């Protein structure tokens, strides 16, 4: 649940903040040569919106609380994803994402920014869910320590 929550927040945020303009440009180019391009465009919107809505609904309608100490595992998951993204870019010969080309130090800064942003965002969501459920963060930490 925690990985899904953070991943969907990042996916929806990055798509709508950065990638949607790129998708619109590509759609305009493809629409000229492919009458079915509109379906790909709508699919991109659905794929990058509906899961975020579902996870938001899940957080609002359940008693799920994100545990702040689990952010370490999420960072490891993110590093694994970035390694796969790098290998995919090298294998394909072109970037998976236009903002993550792996050709200069800019990609490292983008990764660092996404990682720090994800870390802060995860802790913010954990704090909000704990407050919303009237369950103090300290209690979450104690519960987490018992699991170690």
Protein traits:
flat; mainly alpha; transmembrane; 148 residues
Count the strands? 0
Domain count? 2
Average predicted local confidence, pLDDT: 85
Tell me the number of helical segments per DSSP (H or I, 4 or more residues long): 6
Low-confidence stretches: none
Element string (H = helix, E = strand): HHHHHH
- Percent of residues in helical segments? over 70%
- Write down the overall geometry: flat
Q: Would you give an account of this structure?
A:
The chain crosses the membrane at residues 40-60, 72-91, 107-132. Keywords: Membrane, Transmembrane, Transmembrane helix. With 148 residues, the protein is an all-alpha fold. The chain folds into two domains: 1-64; 67-148, no CATH class. The chain is 78% helix and 0% strand. The chain has helices at residues 2-33, 37-47, 50-61, 71-92, 105-132, 137-147. Helix 1 packs antiparallel against helix 2 (37-47), helix 1 (2-33) packs antiparallel against helix 3 (50-61) and helix 4 (71-92) packs antiparallel against helix 5 (105-132). The longest helix has 32 residues, at 2-33. The mean pLDDT is 85.
Give a brief outline of the structure.
This protein is mostly helical and about 150 residues long. The protein has six helices and no strands.
Secondary structure topology:
Blueprint: H1 2-33, H2 37-47, H3 50-61, H4 71-92, H5 105-132, H6 137-147
Helix pairs in contact: 1-2, 1-3, 4-5
């Amino acid at each position: 649940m925690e990985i899904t929550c953070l991943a969907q927040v990042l996916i929806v945020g990055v798509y709508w903040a950065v990638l949607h303009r790129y998708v619109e440009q590509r759609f305009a180019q493809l629409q000229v040569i492919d009458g079915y391009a509109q379906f790909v465009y709508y699919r991109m919107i659905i794929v990058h919106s509906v899961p975020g809505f579902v996870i938001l609904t899940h957080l609002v309608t359940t008693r799920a609380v994100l545990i702040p100490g689990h952010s370490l595992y999420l960072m490891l998951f993110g590093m694994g994803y970035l390694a796969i993204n790098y290998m995919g870019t090298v294998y394909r010969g072109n970037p998976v994402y236009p903002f993550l080309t792996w050709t200069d130090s800019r990609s490292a800064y983008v990764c660092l920014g996404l990682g720090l942003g994800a870390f802060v965002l995860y802790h913010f969501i954990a704090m909000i869910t704990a407050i919303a459920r009237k369950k103090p963060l300290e209690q979450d930490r104690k519960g987490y320590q018992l699991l170690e």
